[in-house]
Design brief:
Number of helices of chain B: 1
Largest sheet of chain B: none
Helix content of chain B: 40-55%
Strand content of chain B: 15-25%
Shape of chain B: elongated
Number of helices of chain A: 5
Oligomer: heterodimer
Order of helices and strands of chain B: HE
Distance between the termini of chain B: 20 Å
Shape of chain A: globular
Chain lengths: 241, 49
């Protein structure tokens, strides 16, 4: 096993701080930073192959059947590890006495982004809601992060792949084969709900399940209860740099 | 068997993280705490090579 990218971080820019040139990283949560490093890792592989600095034998990539794009060799599996359940749907606690799909927590439904809530009110969300990064209900709208929650972003990676649009011109979609989350096993159901579509997109359930990796549920695991709080720094690293 | 896989994977990640910290900060003690939220992608060669 080889760790190809690592990320740490808990912060994201608020809407007020966005740069019109797009030169700032909006979302520095650990999961997102790690994925950015992974894209760089795959980009370096593709560039190496295209410039003949790397041979197909030594690369983790190979050509697809039509020889139009690269793809991850079948013998390789991609695992995602995180020391805390991703923010959003995975980190929300089940409401006492409520249904399985009603949550409380810091993440807010995207549809309520512009609403200034009284902080004493508990906002109820459905699992079908896309959510933003967590913020306090009394945070002014201009200071809220407009980035989607990590749970929702991971959900989209499971449908579209991790490679992104630009690298996708050269590389077939790359999917996560298993997710290992350090956390309380009691939250396993919440985590699985948070990472699956649950009607979040206008796709049929059948389409979603066919393209989503979570039919391999036996590989999703939640182990070792650990108490974690936030740290104020972010690190991004990828193998070899 | 699954649990062994998870533990092995966690150990690989933490070991790598420690080496990254030593490389970037010269010491792993300054920022290596349980407060850190860490995420990583790992590639496994299932052919055994």
């Amino acid at each position: 096993m080889k760790v190809v990218s690592i990320g740490t971080g808990t912060k994201s820019l608020n809407k007020h701080s966005y740069n019109p040139l797009g030169t700032e990283i909006h979302d520095s949560h650990a999961e997102i930073v790690a994925r950015r490093a992974l894209v760089t890792f795959f980009s370096n592989e593709v560039i190496g192959l295209l410039t003949d600095k790397l041979s197909l034998d030594k690369s983790i990539l190979t050509l697809n059947k039509k020889k139009t794009k690269f793809r991850l060799k079948k013998r390789y599996q991609l695992h995602f590890f995180t020391t805390k359940p991703p923010c959003g749907g995975c980190s929300l606690d089940l409401t006492q006495g409520g249904s399985d799909f009603a949550f409380t927590g810091g993440a807010k439904a995207l549809k309520n982004f512009w609403i200034s809530n009284d902080k004493t009110k508990i906002e109820e969300r459905q699992s079908s809601d896309l959510m933003t990064k967590p913020f306090r209900s009394d945070t002014p709208v201009e200071n809220r992060s407009a980035s989607l929650s990590c749970s929702d972003k991971i959900m989209t990676w499971n449908i579209l792949g991790l490679q992104g649009k630009i690298l996708g011109l050269f590389l077939q979609p790359v999917y996560i084969d298993s997710i290992i989350i350090v956390g309380n096993p009691a939250h396993e159901k919440t985590i699985k709900n948070g990472l699956t579509l649950q009607g979040k997109l206008e796709l049929t359930k059948e389409t979603a399940e066919n393209r989503c990796i979570f039919h391999k549920e036996k590989r999703i695991s939640v182990r070792h209860k650990v108490t974690l709080s936030t740290a104020s720094f972010s690190i991004m690293n990828l193998k070899g740099e | 068997m699954e649990e062994n896989f998870e533990r092995k994977l966690a150990n690989v990640v933490l070991k790598e993280y420690e080496s990254v910290l030593k490389q970037k900060f010269k010491s792993s003690h300054e920022v290596f705490t349980t407060k850190t939220i860490l995420a990583a992608f790992i590639i496994e060669d299932t052919s055994g090579n």
